[in-house]
Design goal:
Helix 2 crosses helix 5 and helix 3 runs antiparallel to helix 5. The chain has 93 residues and is an all-alpha fold. 83% of the residues lie in helices and 0% in strands. It has one domain. This is COX assembly mitochondrial protein. It is found in: Mitochondrion.
Length: 93
Amino acid sequence: MGYVQEARENHVKKKVEEALRSKMKQKALKECELYTSKYAQCAMGRTLSVVWKCRKQAAELNDCLHQFTNDSVLEEMKRAYTLQQDAKERAKA
């Protein structure tokens, strides 16, 4: 696949990219629900001490979330969206 074709596949409108980011974040939160609840339980009833008392839970949550919210995941979602739109265009023609 050429550079131009690859660049075209990964180019989407700003609103579409924002929607894809939102979808990516929702999926990440769903996938990391266990770590989210662990962090929430640790943080309950704390104010400033949450920073050092829940450091381990926060790190686990961040590691999990990063697996599902990074540039490569977003690029793959853009690629899939573009291919889906191209297929719709071909079906109309």
